[in-house]
Design a protein that fits this description.
Chains: A mainly alpha (215), B mainly alpha (218), C alpha/beta (260)
Oligomer: heterotrimer
Shape of chain B: flat
Helix content of chain B: over 70%
Strand content of chain B: under 5%
Structural class of chain A: mainly alpha
Largest sheet of chain A: none
Distance between the termini of chain A: 56 Å
Helix content of chain A: over 70%
Number of helices of chain A: 8
Shape of chain A: flat
Largest interface: A-B, 43 and 42 residues
Radius of gyration of chain B: 20 Å
Structural class of chain B: mainly alpha
Chain lengths: 215, 218, 260
């Protein structure tokens, strides 16, 4: 494997990283929005979100990406591989995030909101200053977990032709007839990134457990 | 639109064969993975560092690896070390080993929160080693971690779709073949999504049933 | 004696949870400066009644008026919007059984939060008042501590300070000491007694009979959703005029004898 090959893999790594960050950044608020729709029991949207979440948690990402890439053009929406991949990642992670946020919302003691209501806080103020700070704390480990899962799913983008780490490794392997080394390099890039996230998650969980014990 | 679904229906032979592969593969991987994972968790729980440490390294590494990459390595990479597998075996092997690591971690995490007293009772009654694990430690562990294990089975089903890339003829592969030959991407993939959803609901029903079993024994 | 317009007027209030009728045609008034204690066995509806006053529970029938202004339903007969309700609630302070302090804010921040963000008063002014309030309840030295580090009694005193910071016309107490260890009850009741003495209008749901006896101007005894009797503490505690009132006091005395 030449230096050029290694650079190709690093370039793929950058693509992977950018798409992961984009997927995470889009999926977090979308998941929160979906969770709030369910929590607020909005009439038509509540069951719709429930169905959406159930479907997306059951659908393999590879199938979703292929669906978006091949099926949308017949509806008039033509997506490039990067857009299709990003959309699939976002839709998928939003569904999982929704459940994490929802668990945090359900965990919030009812009297927190009542206390805010009793001092005359309106809905927006209540959410911004009382609800969100607390649920963000509770949801954090689950959200970090979901982020690490998302990063592990990014190779799926290779299926529609996005040159991420995986596709770069496959290409090089096909050219050099030595598939193992580039795969191992790819592994060497993925594992530390995911490990960093998993460690962060464990650290957050430990801190929260310590706080609970002290209280 | 209806015509497209009719076309999918006309290819139901291929569809069912793909679905069958997915189900079979997932089932075998789940059972083998659980068995392997249980053994692995024994190592994780062991007080002997020489056993626990390498097990932990393996489990942590597996949990930080993307499955697709792992499947690639097993199918495309290992041949250069002399180990050649056909797509099916490679897929099964990859699914089993990968998810065994996750199941080991699930069982270990559940074990940490298990009450110690029944285990001590087991020791007092003369159980030890593998027998202790199989008859005293594992049953309540499996019952209490059933929902999380069920989730892992759903993950197995979804990861099996990745194996389309190593040309394994499972459900996504079948559907992709149908849609590319008849130009009916929407109908074909929607069918796949609905079938995966159905599989998921079956697993969740199974988990609920186990949950009821667990409740009765609480 | 000239009749003053009561600060709080409850007229024919009723409430059901599903098929369970929890409040049945409740009416009474609270004058400015009065301390009224709601007494009664569990399930009598006293907490529900309290929570209907600031519309945390929505009554099915009847009216609640604060200083002749209706709460919950506008004079035009429409249900109040979130904003309108919020407006009214700034004039009523509430103290919760489980304290309900906001855990991500320090003690001082808890007390300052609503005056700054709801009433939009200048931060410096609010801080000065908040510190004075904390001094009054004896917790000024804990102002930069998070609620998780406080004892139950301390948390509740902060809760009282937080409610007072809004300068309410009326204070509602929902079993303020029921969640406290016995030795911490006294410090909270002391703060409440001082408040009453200073002329705050208070409605208190409580099981603390000694407090009701000493600090209340009137007690209202409820059972199974109705007001059974109402009167001064002297009247009720020494000579209850109804059979149910008598039974309640007797069971209470017996309970205490067993505990002693």
């Amino acid at each position: 494997m030449s230096l050029a090959d290694v650079l190709t893999i690093f370039h793929g790594a950058l693509t992977t990283l950018l798409l992961s960050v984009a997927g995470i950044a889009l999926g977090l608020p979308l998941g929160l929005g979906l969770a709030l729709l369910r929590w607020g029991k909005v009439p038509l949207l509540n069951p719709a979100v429930a169905v959406y979440v159930s479907l997306l948690r059951a659908t393999p990402l590879v199938t979703l990406v292929l669906l978006l890439f091949f099926a949308l053009p017949s509806a008039g929406i033509s997506l490039g591989p990067v857009t299709a991949g990003l959309l699939a990642l976002t839709l998928n992670t939003a569904a999982f995030n929704c459940e994490v946020w929802r668990a945090a919302l359900l965990d919030l003691p009812k009297d927190q909101i009542e206390a805010a209501q009793s001092v005359g806080m309106g809905r927006v103020l209540r959410f911004r200053r009382i609800v969100l700070p607390q649920i963000a704390r509770t949801a954090l480990p689950g959200l970090i977990n979901e982020m690490s899962l998302l990063i592990k799913l990014t190779p799926v983008l290779a299926v529609v032709g996005v040159v991420d780490i995986t596709r770069a490794a496959v290409r090089i392997g096909a050219q050099t007839y030595e598939p193992l080394p580039p795969f191992l390099v790819a592994l060497a890039i993925y594992v530390p990134i995911v490990f960093a996230l998993v460690s962060a998650q464990r650290w957050v969980e430990r801190r929260m457990a310590r706080r609970e014990a002290a209280a | 639109m209806m015509k497209d679904f009719a076309t999918v229906w006309s290819e139901r032979g291929l569809l069912l064969s793909g679905l069958g592969n997915t189900v079979l593969l997932s089932l075998l991987a789940a059972l083998a993975g659980l068995a392997l994972g249980a053994l692995l968790s024994m190592l994780l729980m062991s007080p002997k560092r020489a056993l626990a440490a390498p097990a932990k390294v393996f489990v942590d590494a597996a949990r930080c690896t993307p499955f697709l990459l792992f499947a690639y390595i097993v199918y495309y990479g290992l041949p250069s070390l002399g180990l050649q597998f056909d797509a099916w075996s490679a897929g099964l092997l990859a699914l089993t080993i990968y998810h065994a690591a996750y199941m080991a971690e699930i069982l270990r995490a559940a074990w940490v929160t298990q009450p110690r007293a029944p285990i001590e009772a087991g020791l007092a009654f003369g159980y030890s080693g593998f027998g202790l694990f199989r008859r005293v430690v594992l049953p309540p562990l499996a019952l209490s971690s059933a929902p999380v294990l069920g989730n892992q089975v759903i993950q197995i089903i979804k990861d099996s779709a990745f194996l389309t890339i190593i040309t394994l003829p499972e459900l996504t592969n079948a559907v992709n073949s149908i849609q590319s030959r008849h130009f009916i991407p929407f109908a074909a993939f929607v069918t796949a999504v609905l079938l995966y959803w159905a599989l998921c609901l079956v697993v969740e029903a199974g988990v609920s049933a186990v949950g009821r079993l667990a409740e009765a024994r609480r | 004696m000239p009749t003053l317009i009561p600060l709080l007027s409850i007229v024919s209030l009723s409430k059901s949870f599903g098929s369970l009728r929890v409040l049945e045609d409740i009416s009474f008034n609270v004058q400015r400066g009065e301390t009224v204690c709601l007494l009664g066995p569990s399930g009598s509806g006293k907490s529900t009644l309290l929570r209907c006053i600031n519309w945390l529970e929505r009554p099915d029938g009847g009216r609640v008026l604060l200083d002749s202004q209706p709460i919950g339903i506008t004079s035009g007969g429409l249900v109040m919007s979130d904003q309108q309700l919020a407006q009214v609630r700034t004039r009523i302070g509430m103290v919760f059984q489980q304290f309900a302090l906001w855990p991500h804010l320090t003690v001082l921040q808890n007390v300052m939060e609503a005056p700054v963000h709801v009433q939009r008063r200048p931060k410096d002014e609010v801080r000065a008042e908040a510190e004075a309030l904390l001094r009054r309840v004896g917790l000024h030295d804990k102002r930069d501590v998070f609620p998780a580090r406080l004892s139950g009694g301390q948390k509740q005193r902060v809760g009282i300070a937080r409610a007072l910071a809004m300068k309410p016309a009326l204070m509602l107490f929902d079993e303020p000491t029921s969640a406290l260890d016995p030795e911490l009850v006294g410090e909270v009741l002391a703060v409440m007694r001082d408040l009453a003495r200073e002329g705050m209008t208070m409605v208190v749901v409580t099981h603390e009979m000694a407090f009701a006896r000493e600090a209340a101007n009137r007690v209202v005894f409820m059972d199974r959703g109705v007001v059974v009797e109402a009167g001064t503490p002297e009247q009720f505690f020494s000579a209850p005029s109804t059979e149910r009132g008598r039974q309640f006091l007797q069971r209470y005395a017996e309970g205490r004898a067993v505990a002693a």
